[in-house]
Amino acid sequence: MEKQNRSGTAGKVIRCKAAVCRNPGEPLVIEEIMVDPPKAWEIRIKILCTSLCHSDVTFWKISIGPFALFPRIFGHEAVGVVESVGEHVEEFQEGDMVVPVFRPNCRECRDCKSQKGNGCSIFGDKLVAEMPRDGTSRFKGMNGETLHHFLSVSSFSEYTVVDVVHVVKISSEFPAEKACLLSCGVSSGTSLMLMWMTGIGAAWKVADIEEGSTVAIFGLGAVGLAVAEGARLRGASKIIGVDLNQEKFEIGKKFGVSEFINPATCGEKKVSEVIKEITDGGVDYSFECIGLASLMEEAFNSSRANWGKTVILGVEMHNTPLAINTYFLLRGRTVTGCFFGGLKAKSDIPILAQKYLHKEINLDGFITHEVNFQDINKAFDLLLEGKSLRCIIWMD
Question: Which cofactor does it need (predicted)?
Fold first, then answer.
């Protein structure tokens, strides 16, 4: 049966507004652009709202190298409604509520079928600038110039085209502004969902925190707070937050942080020494959510001898290698990395969405600001000033 398109736009180029970044570090410009119809295994999405994460800002600043691609449409945390679908698309249809995700999940390859990780051996090994299957863009400026994609999502546009491996269908009952938070999940910076998914997943799937555990979290941004929420729900007995911003303690309490350490007030003591004193030898689980090798080492040193587990969520911002004493590894401590919380988008996001609807997890506390699309640069300012956890950007 032929699929119907009630809006009459299927197969046609759509003209809409997008926030285009033309040069690194410059304010985004709201422009009229053209969005091509989806090709095979692709869908075109009408974005309802989006949000800004540190990953957008990181790539926005890059001025040299292979990732410095401009003009570009950023954004990778969003929720929207399917406007039309391309050939061979059976999983989605017009009107479905969906969240695009930067982490692919084809469900066919060896990695996607395995429960040991959340990689995708077909689509997950390269950071493509355009569509993943044919390497071309679906965006053009009104003068015909190519506009580059970002993380296979590009949600700072009223319409975007996304491959089916980067999309998850969710219930239409889910509040749109909260659904944004389900869309990403990257280190101390990337989508809120990425952040939120990364934090929750790190606590539940990677660390697998058990009731009564002690936890230390280095960095109480969106990712760190999500880790705290996951630890709280697992019944951790002590959740220690480490951050230079004293105000983060009051925020952290909402997510289960029971104790707070500001490194600036520790005097000559290292944070790891303070943590060992208040936990009788170190925490069962430590999480680094900033992206500094020195903090990764300190998180490792804060973990308990014999069984302490350190989970690295932050992307090291200076490419500095991690140096740890291998003697402690021999005694039983472990270190592991975590990307997107170890979660598989198509199977795990709907589960977390249901947990929110059943009031089992807290998403509301992450949203600190909301702006209209034309004020998108204000969202950048709020994040750069450290005033925002997540700013929801409403397209309409």
Answer: Zn(2+)
In sequence order, the 6+-apart residues with CB closer than 8 A to the CB of 117 are 111, 342
Classify the phi-psi angles of 198: left when phi > 0, otherwise alpha if psi is within -120 to 50, otherwise beta. alpha
Q: What is the DSSP letter of 4?
A: P
Residue type, 346: K
24-83, pLDDT tens digit by residue?
999 999 999 999 999 999 999 999 999 887 778 889 999 998 889 999 999 998 999 999
Q: Which residues pair with 18 in a beta bridge?
A: 31, 157
Closest C-alpha to 179, from 272, 72, 48 = 48
* Radius of gyration, CA atoms only, the chain: 21
- Residues 6 or more apart whose CB falls under 8 angstroms from that of 339 comprise 103, 118, 119, 186, 198
Report the C-alpha gap between 76 and 194 in whole angstroms. 9
Mean pLDDT over 206-218 rounds to 97
pLDDT band at 357 (very low <50, low <70, confident <90, very high): confident
Q: 198, 313 in Cβ contact below 8 A? A: yes
- Find, among 363, 362, 356, the residue nearest to 392 by Cα: 363
Q: What is the DSSP string of 79-127?
A: EEEEEEE-TT--S--TT-EEEE-SS---SSSHHHH-SS----TTTSSS-
User: In terms of Cα–Cα distance, which of 29, 14, 101 is closest to 60?
Assistant: 29
Cα angle: 379, vertex 149, 73; to 5 degrees = 30
pTM equals: 0.80
CA distance 211 to 302: 19
* Rounded mean pLDDT, 309-335: 92
